Amino acid sequence: xxxxxxxxxxxxxxxxxxxxxxxETKRVLSSGSFIxxxxxxxxxxxxxxxxxxxxxxxxxxGTDALFMCLLTLRLKPGDEVITVAHTFVATIASIVHxxxxxxxxxxxxxxxxxxxxxxxxxxxRTRAIIPVHMNGRLCDMEEILRIARKHDLPVIExxxxxxxxxxxxxxxxxxxxxxxFSLHPLKSLGVGGDGxxxxxxxxxxxxxxxxxxxxxxxxKGVFSFYGLNSRLDNxxxxxxxxxxxxxxxxxDKRRTLAERYExxxxxxxxxxxxxxxxxxxxxxxxxxxxxxxxxxxxxLKRHLASAGVEVFSFWFPPVHHHEGLGLGHWSxxxxxxxxxxxxxLPIYPELIHEKQDHVIREIRRFFKNG
Length: 370
Ligand SMILES: *Cc1c(COP(=O)(O)O)cnc(C)c1O
Hints:
alpha+beta, 4-stranded mixed beta sheet, binds pyridoxal-5'-phosphate, 3-stranded parallel beta sheet
């Protein structure tokens, strides 16, 4: 189907950056340097400067970034790691693959962990907390860090959806022991395939992860322990470096689009909007997604599809309701209610205002406010 307004428009992004991306691709391909070379190093340096952290370790995906950080906890059977169910399944999978038991805290209206429910989830078996910064908005990190310090627990941030978001000018992924990021094409900074990285200020963690991603080699040819093959490809690093230059401008565009959705939809009583970009002064939300809520979700989706607007309800059913995952015993009322109501609207730097106006017009028409 040819959409009037697609959910994302990666071909358009490519056509804008075509010359630069092809030049870089040709340079890398003709150099023959593919694994852990200069582009990866340069990417790691630039991202470290951008996020204000000491070390960046490029890996294969956001999923591996989480998995590798969780491995360092050396979990024993019965050990618990606290997170949320309103997240991509990879957050929870990383806990389970490392032998831990995921403990889920319910969320608030801003789609992030409800910090009022965090402390009661801590038990003597708790080994770490993974806050997930959903949709480009930071969790209440001050409160999470306060509770984590009180109980002497490490915090590993899932910042896959929130590169560039900040709280009091501190960047997502720079609060905890480690921040995990994704370079998946649907994230604000995406490459032509899978990629990810870990951000940390902890030098020994950085050294360990660098060896872990490369078969346990602390130095070339010496296998210090059993590692993985989870490296960021040099070609993807070169691509990410091209896009990183544009990232601040792209995030501003996302915020402008969010502002436009907000002012155009604010008066419709049947929908609940996410916190807007201007709502709280000390926050810088980056709107990796713009997620509205409505009780008439399915009808609205059908109406928008018939008007050529592509939308998604990514978090339905919620992760803990997927039978194969064995999490059915969890009851998370807010997560469940929100999951039944969410609609992700198109939001990306290449979305021109005329097209966004079409989405707005159709939403207003559906609710008879047009
Ligand atoms: C995308 C995403 C991941 C996984 O990242 P990949 O690079 O696709 O492996 C993890 N957590 C969240 C919240 C995500 O949105």
